[in-house]
Amino acid sequence: MAADRPAAAHEPTEQALVRAAYRRRGRRRSFLVALASTVVVAALAWWVLVSSPGWERTREAFFDPGRFVEMLPALADGLWLNLRVWVIAGVISLVLGLLLAIARTTTAPALFPLRAAVVAFVDIFRGVPVLLVLLVVGFGLPALRLPWMPIQAAFLGTLALVLTYSAYLAEIFRSGIEAVHPAQVAAARALGLTKAQTTRRIVVPQAVRNVVPALLNMVVALQKDSGLISILGAVDAIRVAQIAVSGDYNFTPYVAAGFLFLLVSIPLTRAVDAYNARRGWRGARGVAGAIR
Question: Of 223, 216, 99, 206, whose CA–CA distance to 161 is shortest?
Fold first, then answer.
């Protein structure tokens, strides 16, 4: 019987083999062109750098190998504070941003004062530079001398980052909420769900799904901005580098601090890109590959 016969192995046609060979040649050619152009650009940049009149002085001031290795342990201790601020500020900002977005998209007339307050909050903290927010929060709140208010630089810096990033994240969440089709809400209400149940079970999950790439990018940006807490005196990686530079005016500690930040941010960025590509959120160029 036909069902008992083993399935014949698939053999591509000659035309399919020709197309596959053509694609392989195209990918190989694209890789070689990209490699050659990268080498040329890197060589040109290196030549411009080392042929500049002040290269020797710059190399001694910024790229001292001995000073680089010497500073790494102290900078790593400071970076641990940056990572803690990043995680705490990121979690709080995500939760607060979502709550602000939900409050702003409510339609109940009685909640107009709440919506107005959310709009004012977002307009202020999204429109003011994060550096200015850090200075106002870091030096303004301690001046109030509130007995219950912690005045540690790390706490005040984290608070300033939360205020700024929750405003940005609220707008991202709001765009996701407004992207949910009204038919989804109408269908949920027709099934007997209340407004709160519709928001929690239907709107919010779809809204978060719509804006995950933008949220991940903001989390990556927050990791870099965690270094700004050094202006308040917190002894993070940047502050450790500042203290070291003030002793001998050798700026290599700044380069070492930047290197440690890159060790965190680059793998995180690549992980976010890979996650977006796996979920199909990078568009046609991301699916097919950046190099053609």
Answer: 223
